[in-house]
Specification:
There is one protein chain. The protein has 195 residues and is α+β, with helices and mostly antiparallel strands. The chain has a single domain, classed as ABC-type transport auxiliary lipoprotein component (Rossmann fold), CATH 3.40.50.10610. It is built from three helices and four strands, in the order αβαβββα. The protein starts with a helix and ends in a 17-residue tail after the last helix.
C-alpha cells in the first residue's frame, strides 16, 4: 500500500502538470517549434508519407509521463516536427521509396518546484519502409531543457519554458541524426526467406 507521502507527492505532481499545461495569462505558451532550422543539402531518397507522435505504453516508458499530457503534448510535438521537416526539405517527394515516421514519447519529467527548472524528455524515433516494413532508422533520444532561476520571476513561466526547450532540443537531435540516414542501408532489414 502506498504511503501517505507518496500519494501526496503524486497528487502535487499531477496538479502541477495540469496547472503548467493549462497555463495562465502571463506564462509563455507551450511551443515546441524548433528555431533556426535550415534547408538540408543532404537528401533522403524517400518520400515521407505519414508521421505519428504518441505516448509510450506502460511497458515502453523510461520515466514519468504525467497525466493530462496525452493529447496536447503529442499534437504540439507532431506539428513542430512537421514544421522542422518542411523547413529542412530533407525528404525527396519524388522518390519511389515511401517511409513512415513514428515517435513515441517515453518520458516527460517536469520539475514541480525549484529555482532553476530542468525538464527531461525521451522519445523513440523510427523510420519504417512502407514497402517491406524494414526499420530504416530507430533511436531513443534523451534531452533536457534547462531554465535558470533568473529567466523569469514566475515559476510557471520557468517550467513552461523548460518544457519547450527540452522538446525543442529533442527534435533538434533527431534532425541532426536524420542527416546520416541512408534508406538503402536499413538498421533492421526485413529477412527474406529463401526456398
Amino acid at each position: 500500500m502506498p504511503s501517505q507521502g507518496n500519494i501526496m507527492k503524486k497528487t502535487l505532481a499531477i496538479l502541477s502538470v495540469a496547472f503548467v499545461l493549462a497555463g495562465c495569462q502571463s506564462a509563455p505558451p507551450i511551443n515546441f517549434s524548433v528555431p533556426n532550422v535550415g534547408y538540408s543539402t543532404k537528401k533522403i531518397d524517400a518520400e515521407l508519407k505519414s508521421m505519428t507522435v504518441g505516448i509510450a505504453r506502460a511497458d515502453e516508458k523510461t520515466g514519468d509521463l504525467p497525466a493530462g499530457m496525452e493529447t496536447l503534448v503529442p499534437q504540439l510535438w507532431q506539428t513542430s516536427l512537421q514544421e522542422a521537416l518542411n523547413k529542412m526539405a530533407i525528404f525527396n517527394d519524388d522518390a519511389s521509396n515511401k517511409v513512415n515516421l513514428t515517435v513515441k514519447i517515453l518520458k516527460l519529467d517536469i520539475p514541480s518546484f525549484g529555482a532553476g527548472m530542468t525538464t527531461e524528455v525521451a522519445a523513440r524515433y523510427e523510420l519504417l519502409d512502407r514497402k517491406n516494413g524494414a526499420v530504416i532508422y530507430t533511436q531513443d533520444i534523451s534531452s533536457k531543457g534547462e531554465v535558470p532561476y533568473d529567466y523569469a520571476f514566475s515559476g510557471v513561466t520557468r517550467v513552461r519554458e523548460s518544457i519547450n526547450r527540452s522538446v525543442q532540443n529533442n527534435i533538434t537531435q533527431f534532425l541532426q541524426a536524420l542527416q546520416t540516414v541512408d534508406v538503402s542501408k536499413p538498421m533492421f532489414p526485413v529477412k527474406v526467406s529463401q526456398k
